[in-house]
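Please produce the structure of this protein holding S-adenosylmethionine.
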Amino acid sequence: MSVLDVCCGTGTYAAAVPGPYLGLDLNERFVRFARRRYSNLPRKQFVVGDATAMPLPRQSFDTAIFIDALHHFPVEINRAIFHQLAAIVRAEILIVDVSPHVRNPAKRLALAIDRGDFIRPVAQQVAIVESELRIVRRSVFDQGLYTQTVYVCRAP
Ligand SMILES: C[S@@+](CC[C@H](N)C(=O)[O-])C[C@H]1O[C@@H](n2cnc3c(N)ncnc32)[C@H](O)[C@@H]1O
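Below is the modeled complex.
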């Protein structure tokens, strides 16, 4: 399965992908770091690019992942990214984002210091995702101090 990692940062999830992987991020330093980090794994590729204008052919990836980026963007940017993914991806698009519905004080602190300006209730996350994609499954899991929702989506 080929995987496109949109807004990949330093490529944290590349090692979890057994097959071909392309990480795309706007930050050149992150991409340089990721290339060095995975220089021994030729099937892990990284490019500098703007997720709102990805020059990738239609249906060119099996899967895309978009992890912890939704809450860094306003609605229109997220929609622009999802609109493109609907064309680029053949199968499933996995979107993961933080849930603000937490009571645990340590989790609340982690959210308070998060650098994302758009932490949204799950209902708003769903509305944004569903404006461009079809959610086929949704689940919640804990990752460190974050409670995360994963949306498994397909093109509409
Ligand atoms: C919070 S980080 C998430 C990184 C990664 N997905 C992870 O979970 O480790 C958000 C990333 O989005 C990237 N980014 C911001 N605007 C972007 C854009 N227009 N196109 C591509 N990447 C962008 C930033 O450089 C940053 O690496």
